[in-house]
Amino acid sequence: MNQKQLKKDLKKLLKSMDFVSNNFLHGKGTNKKEFQIYCNIYQQLGLALEFLGLHCRHQEGYKKTRDKNEVCKICGKVKDVDEFYYLLPKEGIKKLGKELKPDSRKTFKNKKRGNRC
Questions:
Q1: pLDDT for res 98
Q2: Distance (Å, whole) CA 14 – CA 45
Q3: Which pLDDT score, from 0 to 100, does residue 88 have?
Q4: Which domain of life is it from (predicted)?
Q5: pTM of this prediction exceeds 0.85
């Protein structure tokens, strides 16, 4: 993807996100159904922002923030920080749906009472 086009697309996307949040997500005069629709639109725009951010090669360099972090001038990614979209451990075995049991008698008197939850 061309970096100039990426920069234009990111600016347009951020403007549209600002428009949706400023005009429709303040809760003034919108019913619950419309509010949910605009929330979903905002979420989809956020996904598009992350997708475009993945294509950025950070060629224009970084700028420093107040917190002394370096942030890409185009996409806003923080330098030297890994971003994880799934809360799984980076290394080692990944376990999903692991059954947790009480590990001491202070929690429950026996295993049978602990498994009622």
A1: 58
A2: 9
A3: 63
A4: Bacteria
A5: no
- Tell me the C-alpha distance between 26 and 50, whole Å: 24
Q: Which residues of 53-88 are buried (b: 16+ CB within 10 A; e: fewer)?
A: beebeeeeebeeeeeeebbbebbeeeeeeeeeeeee
What pLDDT is stored for residue 116 in this prediction?
Answer: 57
Query: Residue 32 has which token pair?
Result: 């619950």
Task: Identify the segments of the chain with pLDDT beneath 50.
Answer: 117
Decide: 72 and 57 in contact? Cβ < 8 Å: no
- Looking up tokens 């990426």, which residue turns up? 6
Q: How far apart are CA 6 and CA 4, in angstroms?
A: 5
